[in-house]
Amino acid sequence: MKSIKNYDLEELKKQLLELNEKPYRAEQVFKWLYVDKVNSFDEMTNLSLDLRKKLKEHFEFTIHKIKTKQSSKDGTKKYLFELNDGNAIETVLMEYKYGKSLCVSSQVGCKMGCKFCASTGLPFIRSLTSAEIVEQILAVERDENIKISNVVFMGIGEPFDNYENVINAIRIINNQKGLSIGARHISISTSGLVPYIYKLADENIQCTLSISLHCTNNEKRSILMPINRKYNIEELMKACKYYIEKTNRRISFEYALIKGENDNIEDANGLIKLLKGMLCHVNLIPVNKIENEPFKKTNDKNIIKFRDYLNENGIVATVRRELGSDIDAACGQLRRKSVNDK
Ligand code: SAH
């Protein structure tokens, strides 16, 4: 049985039509789900008991159970959600001046194998459904009694390895009759699954694309990020240029600074050569500590030097604030868990 939260409004109308229900019923259900954020079909009190029964017979009602919730000293909160099948994923709530941003997971585990990232350490289990993606937002909004203003697909998983469900979730999240989070307030981050960069460029969605670049040299990048062996930097950049041309949207390149790996002047020059003249922005991330890995972060002074050097050479670069590292909620620190894990 599929979850009721898998459908954008138009699709929900079709689903209900098959059950001989009028389109306005779908509008009512959609409002209960995403405006009133109810916990069950029984709470949809303007629907007849018969219709509620019918809905229960045909659709699941996805609700994530909060297994744990941790708070960082900087205000960041990390949720461990239990899914219906006993798997568990992490979701992170961050406070910014401009609003509340939610970092959502797209898969239970990750196949990408990036050496510096904790999400990939355990075996991959499965992709999330659109409902399980959307429900991360609903669960946090209910729990904190807040409205999320930004969503970033930067939690566990590779969003482009679950492309259809992620795009469908974005359409649901974006719908003005529901959560109504503007596409420009939604970011997708990819380690570089090139065919989907082209695919996203051809969709009519104004979301932000982030590319986890981290290295400008193929040899090194292939070691740190195995996906580079399949799609190298040249192919990646070609796709990025197509994306910018097609959408006229700025791409954000993520670059985790790792001491001695990718943080010297040659690396900065590599970035300048690669990105000069492109409609883009570089997000420098001091690499976060993960278990059993030797990577150390570049010291603060060098990070500033690296940033300034890029800026002086025409590349817009900023340093991402480190949020939630004391509760392992920062970039690259999220992991899939089984419900028995601590
Ligand atoms: N799989 C997607 C989505 C994850 S986003 C992707 O790779 O883009 C998480 C971001 O944090 C990515 O840019 C990732 O490369 C980065 N990251 C991973 N491990 C990190 C670490 N230890 N420190 C800082 N950033 C890290």
Structure in words:
This protein is α/β, with parallel strands linked by helices. The protein folds into two domains: 4-58, Orthogonal Bundle (DNA polymerase, domain 1), CATH 1.10.150.530; 65-327, TIM Barrel, CATH 3.20.20.70. 35% of the residues lie in helices and 20% in strands. The strands form three sheets. Strands 3, 4, 5, 6, 9, 10, 11, 12, 13, 14 and 15 form an eleven-stranded mixed sheet that branches. α1 crosses α2 (23-34) and α6 runs parallel beside α9. S-adenosyl-L-homocysteine binds at residues 112, 114, 116-117, 154, 158, 189-191, 212, 254, 256, 285, 287-288, 290, 331-332.
What's the CATH class label of the largest domain? Alpha Beta
- First-residue to last-residue Cα separation: 31 Å
- Structure annotation, total helices: 11
How many individual domains? 2
Fraction in beta strands: 15-25%
CATH superfamily of the largest domain: Aldolase class I
Low-confidence stretches: none
Percent in helix: 25-40%
Total strands: the figure is 15
Largest sheet: 11 strands, mixed
CATH topology of the largest domain: TIM Barrel
Radius of gyration: 21 Å
Average pLDDT reading? 95
Element order: H for helix, E for strand? EHHHEEEEEEEHEHEHEHHHEHEHEE
Structural shape: globular
Question: What hetero molecules are bound to the protein chains?
Answer: S-adenosyl-L-homocysteine
